[in-house]
UniProtKB/TrEMBL annotation:
Gene expressing this chain: eda
Protein name: 2-dehydro-3-deoxy-phosphogluconate aldolase
Any one GO molecular-function label of the UniProt entry: 2-dehydro-3-deoxy-phosphogluconate aldolase activity
Alphabetical list of PANTHER family matching this protein: 2-DEHYDRO-3-DEOXY-6-PHOSPHOGALACTONATE ALDOLASE-RELATED (PTHR30246:SF1), 2-KETO-3-DEOXY-6-PHOSPHOGLUCONATE ALDOLASE (PTHR30246)
Subunit field text: Homotrimer.
Amino acid sequence: MTPTEASEKALEICQLAPIVPVLVVEDVAHAGPLAAALVAGGLPALEVTLRTDAALEVIAEMARIEGGVVGAGTLLTPEDVKRAKDAGATFGVSPGATDRLLDACEEADLPLLPGAATASEAMRLFERGYTVQKFFPAEAAGGASFLKSLSSPLPLIRFCPTGGVSPKNARDYLSLPNVVCAGGSWVAPKEMVASGDWAGIERLAAEAAALPR
Ligand SMILES: O=C(O)C(=O)C[C@H](O)[C@H](O)COP(=O)(O)O
């Protein structure tokens, strides 16, 4: 898959809803009901971070939920790419980008949303063909005003800001011309997942899905 094709696919996925839930799931038993609640609330694209031992099994379980589009986050190495793809991930997300990681995703036909936090990083990815990128860590790297400043010199690059995005600031990002969607963990709070409050998570998802963009 070429970087251009990967970005087209990433754009399609980002356009499904204003928010992509960023999920840190410890217990595979939570995977099915959590994905079902988020999808029912209107958030079909799900990013499962490879930050827990259960993550690959969680991806496999979530991939069975109808209407869901399940990706793997925290991709750092070519090995991560292979494991994510084998588990059933249909897209990948990375906090930054290395040539080895980009090569691996292109070879594995895994559409990637690669991370960038500066103009130079975004330009490098754009030069290779990645027109849709994750802006990470969004709040710490300069927030919505930083991203707004990139839109004039880099109008052809679109972003999914992630990291510190919340219901308080999501609108600031989503109203920018160079933002397609945003990523955030607030729609699946740890305590609600642990207690199995799927109705509460569906409500949070519905609120996020209704955010204007
Ligand atoms: O593990 C990764 O690759 C990530 O994507 C990190 C996430 O962007 C943040 O964990 C977002 O988390 P919040 O700031 O809580 O919304």
